[in-house]
Amino acid sequence: MIRDGFIRVAASTPEVRVADVEFNREQICKGIEEAKAQGAAVLVFPELALTGYTCGELFMQKPLLSKVRGELEKLIDFTKGSDMLIFAGLPWEYNHKLYNTAAAIQNGRLLGLIPKRWLPNYSEFYELRYFNPGWEDVIYVPWEDGQVPMGSRLLFRCADMDNFVVGAEICEDVWVLNPPSIAHASAGATVIVNCSASDEATGKSDYRRSLISGQSARLLCAYVYANAGEGESTQDLVFGGQNMIAENGAVLAESARFANGTIYADVDLERLECERRRMTTYQTEGRERYTFVDFSMAFGEQELRRKIDPSPFVPHDEEGRNRRCEEILSIQAMGLKKRLKHTNCKCAVVGISGGLDSTLALLVSVRAFDLLGLPRKDIIAVTMPCFGTTDRTYHNACLMAEKLGVSLMEVDIKEAVTVHFRDIAQDPAKHDVTYENSQARERTQVLMDTANQRGGMVIGTGDMSELALGWATYNGDHMSMYGVNASVPKTLVRHLVRYFADTCGEKALSEVLLDVLDTPVSPELLPPEDGKIAQKTEDLVGPYELHDFFLYYILRFGYHPGKIYRLAKRAFEGAYADETILKWLRVFYRRFFSQQFKRSCLPDGPKVGSAAVSPRGDLRMPSDACGRLWLEELEQM
């Protein structure tokens, strides 16, 4: 165990000699020794690994079957003193019939036998020539001086970790219409293992990968697939290995084909448990039809090997990132297009500051108008300079409007805000929250009234990261008629703007967008210092890359604060000190709970990803929820 719901699993393809059971058992033992040293909790070997899959008529020979029993005893004895749960394939004779089984072994005990349910007997396969189909309901078969459970409906449950439940199937079982693993997962299995002997053919590896990753996604499970490899007979077939470990649709580890060996991955059972809890359509039934075999495991502290992505909202490969950006821009634009068409609105009003969020909102508006065939001049880009506006952001806003072909409107709000200060007896020299928010609310009033004049719609600019932190002026930039950025995290906003800059095909527009990207994030509500931005958002609320990381794991998986802190330390190792991460995580939780009232009345806006903060969608959270449980855990760290 690696703490916080992680366990290390392994899939191993040992060298085999067909029908040389003693040699094969020795190779399996070598694999066990290696996996033990690597701290694996579960280790899976291929189908019929003890004999080799390609024995053919030799499966009917008594000397081979007798040798299997003897070598199985030695294998089980070899595991004494190890808590690792091991699955290995072997032929098993019962009641004068032969079954293709996976043996579950731990610490000197044979815990159970899982028979293969579906035996292929087509094309190159002829398993029904030797084996009988396995059964579902568990029976007890003789073993040594006692009995051992045997059947498909057999799950292995860790007494020391309640979400660590393992089910098994064998090769073809996962290729059929109704794989046993479906029932296993529905009955509570979070880890599915597969002892397999799938031969190679052109294009088969891609299908095999999609099959295993898809099954792990459908079942919300970890799937450990161990395949036969080099050493099997090549009389008619070649076996290439291709071991895989998948988790909820993602392949965490995959071996190279045509090379025997062992792969490892740290799977997150707590993540799977959270996903199952979140998805109300995930069926949990049939436990009463299963036999549970309990086992114990003494978990020691291990270093987490799993790579933790510091930017979970942003794909790292350029092709995937570009594809994601195009998709999100399309979702945003299509959402706005529908709203404009439904309201018969032919004018959009966007407040532009020369910052990232308003830039993205303007770009989305342009795309929506192009889709509708409406002239871009009917997009009113409003720049509203005030006390904190710098020349850089002002000129970028104006130039951007020009290059996009939208109408630019300038409303200097300094006088209006000054009059307002006089009306409410606010000292202009007192740069407090009233000083700042008066500007934000005046800008919103200008936008709303301008939209009314033209029969238009105010397009919101605020992003999901700001909304999660409550970094928005209530009834100021917090309000709009349609918030196109409401579910886009700040770390992704940057990439969307860059993608537009890279693909717009206009050098001048690209240059201004790139300069926007280089501009520090700021609400520009305080006077500049030497003509430069004086108020940098990330100095005040913390780095957005940290907050987006926290946001992802809080909203998507409901992790407890200690686990998020631990993951963040690993993800941002070398970038932020541990105490810095902890400081901003505390800030996030305090603001996340205290600022829900702002999110409870958000305008409509399209959901673009797997997490959002809309009160009508992903985050139906009471405005008065207490965050003490979460903050107390952090205070103890």
Describe the structure in your own words.
By secondary structure, the chain is of the alpha/beta class. The chain folds into 2 domains: 6-295, 4-Layer Sandwich (Nitrilase/N-carbamoyl-D-aminoacid amidohydrolase), CATH 3.60.110; 318-635, Rossmann fold (3-Layer(aba) Sandwich), CATH 3.40.50. Helices cover 39% and strands 18% of the residues. The chain has 19 helices and 20 strands. The protein has helices at residues 21-37, 62-78, 180-186, 204-219, 269-278, 318-342, 356-372, 391-404, 414-424, 433-454, 464-469, 490-503, 507-517, 537-541, 544-557, 561-571, 578-594, 596-599, 628-635; strands at residues 6-13, 42-44, 85-94, 97-106, 109-115, 139-143, 146-150, 154-158, 165-170, 191-196, 222-227, 244-247, 250-254, 261-268, 291-295, 348-351, 379-383, 407-410, 457-460, 482-483. Helix 15 packs across helix 16 and helix 15 packs across helix 17. The longest helix has 25 residues, at 318-342. The radius of gyration is 31 Å and the shape is elongated. The mean pLDDT is 95.
